[in-house]
Amino acid sequence: MSGHTPDSQKIVSEKLMKNKKIKCSYCGKEMKPEEKDFTNNPFTPFCSERCKLADLDKWFNGEYSIEQSIEELTPEQLADLPDENP
Ligand SMILES: [Zn+2]
Prior knowledge:
single chain
């Protein structure tokens, strides 16, 4: 016997989840899991639909320019990109 069963692991992770404060990725507002079932929150990791949409807006406005070079590639160039190292 190793001493830790799946059950005790589950209890520990549940405690961690309860103690963990989730912050909205947009406005930084703390979401307390015990107040709001954030696992069922369709706006995760945002506190509300408003923040989710506002964040999406940022993306569309180009504030985040991650992988911009990829988007500029033509389909042919994309197909040419190596998927995996041999
Ligand atoms: Zn928010």
